[in-house]
Amino acid sequence: MSSSKSTLKNAWPYQQDRMNLPVADLETAVPFYETMLGFRVILRSETPHQSAVLERDGIQIGLAENGGDPEQDGCFFEVDDVEKMLAEVNAAGFDKVSPDFQQQKYGDVTWKVLFVVAPDGLCYSFGERQN
């Protein structure tokens, strides 16, 4: 594992299920996750609809052509270093990222947060715990 990459530590879906994130077209969605976010496809399925399970750092998410609205879903990822995550995404050539590291408080934890909206419409937050 290269030290120039951020490590995913956890993932929480915005809706109910991070293993069933809606995309309109799986084949056009997957390359973004592989190229820009460093995931790899570990499983594909045709039933009940086209879907794929992607993995990075032991964290899995699933994309599915399930008819859901991608603009209403996504995941919050806990990362060890949000600035490395930004550098990684930028180095991969993706520039539609908000490098405005907002401090957000959830419960008693403050997070330094980066937002990435995938071309499929799903929104992702990458957060690093702040002391």
List keywords for this structure.
alpha+beta; 131 residues; 2,3-Dihydroxybiphenyl 1,2-Dioxygenase, domain 1; 9 strands; 4-stranded mixed beta sheet; 5-stranded mixed beta sheet
Describe this entry's structure for a reader.
The protein is of the alpha+beta class and 131 residues long. It has one domain: 2,3-Dihydroxybiphenyl 1,2-Dioxygenase, domain 1 (Roll). Helix content is 15%, strand content 45%. It contains two helices and nine strands, in the order ββαββββαβββ. The strands form two sheets. Strands 1-6-9-8-7 form a five-stranded mixed sheet, with helices on one face. Strands 2-5-4-3 form a four-stranded mixed sheet, covered by helices on one side. A hairpin with a 2-residue loop joins β4 and β5. The longest helix is centred in the first third of the chain and has 10 residues. It is globular, with a radius of gyration of 14 Å.
